[in-house]
Write a structure and sequence with these properties.
Helix content is 69%, strand content 0%. By secondary structure, it is an all-alpha fold. Helix 1 (3-11) crosses helix 6, helix 3 (31-51) packs antiparallel against helix 4 and helix 3 crosses helix 6.
Length: 121
């Protein structure tokens, strides 16, 4: 399943654009919110692999659950008709490719606000 498909599941009737919005909202911000939240929660090595030019290291749905607000996760999962476990698994699947595509130069852009403007979907 490709990135657009996973984001489509996360975005429901708003499609992959809604998925991008939901991931940003879940982490409290754009690319910087995602990278900072994950790094502060012990996943800095994985985040750096996504930003860099090498192989992207995976994270798990459980990793996502530990990093985000459980109430926000529950609410977003419920909106898409999923369990928090299923929703976080999809988020974990999407994040490496999202961050990788948003950082093609191997670093976080200075204007790393909204991911929609950084992703070429």
């Amino acid at each position: 399943m490709g990135l657009q498909d996973v984001l489509g599941k996360l975005g429901g009737n708003r499609g992959h654009q809604g998925g991008i919005d939901n991931v940003q909202q879940l982490f409290g911000g754009g690319l910087q919110g995602i990278t900072q939240t994950l790094s502060k929660n012990g996943m800095g090595q994985q985040v750096q692999s996504w930003i860099g030019t090498g192989q992207n290291q995976p994270i798990s749905g459980a990793d996502v659950q530990r990093a985000v607000d459980p109430q926000k996760l529950q609410q977003m999962a419920q909106q898409q008709g999923m369990s928090p476990e299923e929703y976080s698994k999809h988020v974990a699947q999407a994040l490496p490719d999202m961050v990788d595509q948003a950082t093609p130069e191997g670093m976080v852009p200075k204007q790393a606000g909204n991911l929609k403007s950084l992703l070429k979907l």
